[in-house]
Amino acid sequence: MINNEYSLKKVLKGVLIYSSGNVLVSASGFFLIPVYTRILNPLEYGIVGYLQVIYQLFVVILGFGFFGAQTRYYYEHKDNEELVGSFFYTINIVIIGFFLIILLPLLFFGYFYGWTIGSEKIPFHPYLSVTFLAVLLSVLNNNAISFLRMKHNFLSASMISLFTFLLTSLFTIFLIVFFKLGALGRIAGNAIGLLIIFLPCYFFLYATNFNPCFSKDSLKYAIRFGFPVVLYSLMGIVHNFIDRLMLEHYLPISELGIYSLGISVATVLQMFVTAFNQAFQPSYYELMESGGESREIHIVKTFKFWLIMLTIATCIGIVIGGPFLTVFAGVQFKDVSSIFPYLLLSVYAGSFYYFFSSSIFFYKKTHWLPFITGSSAIINIVMNLLLIPMYGINGAAIATIVSHIWMSAISYVMGNRLFKINWPLRFILCLIAFVLITFYITINIKNY
After folding, report:
1. Dihedral sign (CA 103, 48, 196, 62)
2. What digits encode the pLDDT tens for the residues 350-393?
3. pLDDT class for 299, splitting at 50, 70, 90?
4. DSSP strands (E only) in 94-214
5. DSSP label at residue 178
6. CB-side exposure of 118: number of CA atoms within 13 Å?
7. Which of 28, 47, 94, 263 is most buried, most CB within 10 Å of its CB?
8. What are the start-end ranges of the E strands in 245-332?
9. pTM score, whole prediction
């Protein structure tokens, strides 16, 4: 029987608390864009965008999907605090050990041999050195925030996200405005902010739950769960960031700066999608564990509400986003207004994946995930190769839209093989049509 406390109202309360913090962070970050775009030129913004790809890549590698494994492990063994504490301790020791054994020596080699990256010959040190430090801090903080979410402590998770944003923004502005560090200031400000929030968050809210006993069984569990997830995530990185790498190859890095800015703004919508998913997942696991017959009703009801809110937000962004950014971002970045509607559409197209794939995680069929993201990444690469030489940054955005449609569609098919849900297809198609009509009218008015 389903827990009587489960309801859409209960879920949305957690979602609202958690997502509001993340959306506030994104919205606040949005209003800092005029500061960045008037101090950083497109070339420097392009360097930041390029380093963000590397940052995301190593966050996935170092994290190895362990934060997801700890959520699943917790709900299987939450009545055994010692066992759970040992699991937490084990995965964190492994992460820190990997950093010390693999990434730290890489930093020394990069420094002493003067390595560079990218076509602009970006120095390995200090750019990559600072980025790798931020990677370690981010992975450990993700584990701590994941712990708070699994305990339904959404308010604390939101406050940590908010304070992280405030600190990283404060130091970033300080370094790029007063010290004129340009792209390095953007990267270093992020690392300093993460370091400050890491100390109380990790050691006082999370590490106090550790049981300092290394467990081989816990590690085996984490690797079994995490290995398919990390493959899936790496392919997801390829899928989500290959356009930026290819733009850096085919076009001046200043064009990558324009594209990266558009993605940064579109992240406001992506943050809503991600925040909703992260807040809903603990309730979804509890609901599925209950085994009740009305599980499908609760899931579909929540999905409909989510999709209505997502559709409204996407349409508003498509209509007003471009003209607003023309003024907001400054003269150097005026071209971002033409690419922005495409980027919002790509976020919308990929958002369905989060709901449709939930059963894959619940039933531990994570070995299916690399196929989903891998096939989507292949489509994205092929489309980018065809479209970027002809259409530039618009071609990259179109390629992302197509690959996101495929990812959502294939996750729908595979997720329903595990847990059959009669998704409201007519309802979905009507809302998609509404978004497409809004997009078509907006683009044609602009061109006219």
Report:
1. negative
2. 999 988 988 888 887 877 877 888 888 889 889 988 998 888 88
3. confident
4. 116-117, 122-123
5. I
6. 26
7. 47
8. none
9. 0.67
